[in-house]
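In response to the reviewer comment on reproducibility (Comment 2.3), we provide here a single inverse folding case reported in full, input and output, so that an independent group could reproduce the run without further information from us. The structure tokens appear first.
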């Protein structure tokens, strides 16, 4: 799995690709923690290139959302493929983590 990250103004965008599973979730969590040290105003997770989302991946996204809330940072995800979207909604994560269809939608409505 690769994890790209970049800023759009004050918003950190983290874009993992491949499988967000037991093997890769710890690396994702470590990177998010490190990136939050720079105190971005908000964080968006781009899930458009995630081909598999396991429960450990969901847990790492939840941990990132909790850390963002603790830091008073806006947080959301966007671009989920059908598989990731189904896992996300069946688990109920869409009830407490903002979800957006596209990056443009997320940037316009996150803050």
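Designed residues, in position order:
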């Amino acid at each position: 799995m690769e994890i790209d990250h970049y800023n759009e103004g004050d918003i950190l965008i983290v874009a993992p690709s491949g499988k967000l599973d037991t093997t890769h979730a710890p690396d994702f969590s470590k990177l998010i923690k490190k990136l939050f040290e720079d105190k971005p105003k908000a964080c968006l997770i781009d899930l458009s290139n995630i081909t598999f989302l396991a429960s450990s991946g969901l847990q790492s996204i939840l941990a990132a959302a909790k850390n963002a809330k603790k830091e008073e940072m806006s947080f959301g995800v966007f671009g989920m493929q059908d598989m990731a979207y189904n896992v996300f909604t069946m688990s109920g994560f869409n009830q407490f983590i903002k979800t957006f269809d596209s990056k443009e939608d997320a940037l316009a409505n996150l803050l």
